[in-house]
Design goal:
The structure is a single chain. This protein is α/β, with parallel strands linked by helices. It has four domains: 179 residues, P-loop containing nucleotide triphosphate hydrolases (Rossmann fold, 3-Layer(aba) Sandwich), CATH 3.40.50.300; 66 residues, no CATH class; 161 residues, P-loop containing nucleotide triphosphate hydrolases (Rossmann fold, 3-Layer(aba) Sandwich); 69 residues, no CATH class. The protein is built from 17 helices and 22 strands. The strands form five sheets. It has a six-stranded mixed β-sheet with strand order 6-9-10-3-11-12, with helices on both faces. It has a six-stranded mixed β-sheet with strand order 18-19-20-15-21-22. A four-stranded antiparallel β-sheet has the order 2-1-4-5, with helices on one face. It is globular, with a radius of gyration of 24 Å. The chain starts with 21 loop residues before the first strand and ends in a 5-residue tail after the last helix.
């Protein structure tokens, strides 16, 4: 077994000259006449971490769903262990050792760790489940991967990183030799992400072929042996990770250089557009205070899961705080009622677009116009009028669709996020709260969304931005409020602090 260097990559190529366990050739797939894959070739070797990158909508998800048997290709071959298949069912893929761990965890949260690991394969003796044997086998599956968890703990009480580890252990126990990991570190703090990456490296050492899907360029260059980039349903580049840089990856993903630099914005006005005072909720938020002037962007930075993660519920009125005051343009706003927040001119955009943001059963245009009074009730379904009103929002926010007005669930994450922003930001807001507006979107969509936020501030809107990304706060904010363990611990003028100093403050370092 090759020793690991500090970066986690073997001193020699981990995969060496091993024959591919998977060899895809000319794989194509269309949906309703729109081509999602256009003749893709891909090799996966045992003991190799193969990163798959590309913008949202590039075809990554379709490709791995074809490999996992979720979708059947229109043409092409899937070579597994030297045997060619025109398509696979999910059952066939699993039997061949192809496992998929999606970004949205698929554990049964009310069951224990042991029950989830052996789900569908519970040991039975004399017609009864052998609970002790189940716990022993689950413990062995975790131990084999160096995972330390209580097998009697319920899955719903685990952290996101721990849930990922349980899913991985389950798939490896089932005989997974090709493991597809979709955004395994999304929404994780630095330490939790490190734990997941350590597990991935261990799997690689055991000879498992890893497909690693991520939007995080630095993470991919740290973890991967090989990187394949997709754009518009095709492979645009594939090379050893050691031969790539962040800039070259971006060019291959987007087809051009993408630079998200802060433009010159008008100076914030003296008037306060948004004021939050003494906001508290249990142990999550304690005496949170901030003032945001008109035309100013104030970033709230903290580790994932800290106070900024609860601001949406409180400021939008979904949850009533234990204490606190909210003022918009100097006028008090009653807390704990969504209608009061909306009437004040405050628009709160959730970071959980899947569950709280867009409505999957509606079309793109219906989602775009849903917050407009003109399109409530029956008028929402007047398609011609709806399309006419929605078109300028599509154009202004760069929403890209393959057909005229598809269900929003068919869009990439970046385009769904643009729809969500357009839905609220085109209703003449006085103040805006944004929760992780670029979470889970590609680099080109990030640049577009940053431009949208710049233009919002330039129009004189007070913008409060909650983020777990120091880079995003440095790029967008005029000032940064740092929260730790539910409390505000520091406030900085962005022009007078470095990124490293800001991170040190957030993590409890010396720069406070």
């Amino acid at each position: 077994m090759t020793a690991l260097t500090d970066s986690g990559v073997g001193e020699e190529d981990r995969a060496g000259a091993a024959e591919p366990v998977v060899r895809l050739r000319g794989v194509a797939k269309s949906f309703g006449g729109a081509a999602a894959l256009k003749g893709v070739d891909l090799d996966l070797r045992p003991g190799e971490i193969h990163a798959l990158m590309g913008m949202n909508g590039a075809g990554k998800s379709t490709l791995v769903h074809v490999l996992a048997g979720v979708h059947q290709p229109d043409r092409g071959t899937l070579g597994i262990d030297g045997h060619a298949h025109s398509s696979l069912t999910m059952r066939q893929a699993r039997r061949l050792g192809i496992s998929f761990v999606p970004q949205r965890r698929e554990l049964v949260m009310g069951l224990t760790v042991a029950e989830n690991i052996l789900l569908g394969d519970l040991p039975v003796r004399g017609g009864r489940v052998s609970w002790q044997r189940m716990r022993d086998e689950a413990r062995r599956a975790l131990d084999d991967l160096g995972i330390s968890l209580d097998v009697a703990q319920r899955a719903g009480t685990l952290t996101v990183a721990e849930q990922t580890m349980v899913e991985v252990a389950r798939e490896v126990r089932r005989g997974g030799r090709v493991l597809i990991l979709d955004e395994p570190t999304a929404c994780l703090g630095a330490e939790a992400a490190r734990q997941v990456k350590t597990l991935v490296r261990r799997l690689c050492e055991e000879g498992i072929a890893i497909v690693y899907i991520s939007h995080y360029i630095d993470e991919v260059l740290e973890v991967a042996d090989r990187v394949t980039v997709m754009r518009d349903g095709r492979v645009t580049h594939s090379a050893p990770a050691a031969e790539l840089t962040g800039a070259t990856l971006v060019r291959h993903m987007v087809g051009r250089d993408v630079v998200s630099r802060r433009p010159a914005r008008p100076a914030p006005k003296d008037e306060v557009g948004l004021k939050v005072g003494g906001l508290s909720r249990g142990r999550f938020i304690r005496d949170f205070q901030v003032e945001v002037r008109k035309g100013e962007v104030v970033g709230v930075l903290g580790a994932a899961g800290d106070a900024q993660s609860f601001l949406f519920d409180l400021l939008s009125g979904r949850v009533r705080p234990d204490a606190g005051e909210l003022h918009v343009e100097g006028r008090p706003v009653p807390l704990g009622k969504v209608r009061h927040s909306l009437r004040s001119g405050l628009r709160c955009v959730t970071g959980d677009r899947r569950n709280l943001g867009v409505i999957p059963g509606l079309t793109v245009d219906e989602n775009l116009m849903l917050a407009s009074d003109r399109f409530t009730g029956r008028r929402l379904h007047r398609e011609g009028e709806l399309a006419r009103r929605a078109a300028p929002r599509r154009d202004a926010y760069g929403v890209i669709t393959l057909s005229r007005n598809p269900a929003i669930s068919t869009l990439s994450g970046g385009n769904q996020q643009k729809v969500l922003l357009a839905k609220w930001l085109e209703t003449a807001p006085t103040a805006v709260f944004l929760e992780d507006p670029t979470n889970g979107v590609d680099i080109a969509a990030i640049a577009d969304i940053h431009t949208i936020i710049d233009e919002l501030a330039s129009r004189g809107v007070a913008v409060l931005l909650a983020s777990s990304s120091a880079e995003e706060v440095m790029r967008l904010a005029d000032r940064a409020v740092v929260v730790r363990s539910g409390r505000v611990v520091a406030e900085h003028d962005i022009a007078r602090i470095t990124r490293d100093e800001l991170v040190a403050t957030a993590l409890g370092g010396n720069h406070s």
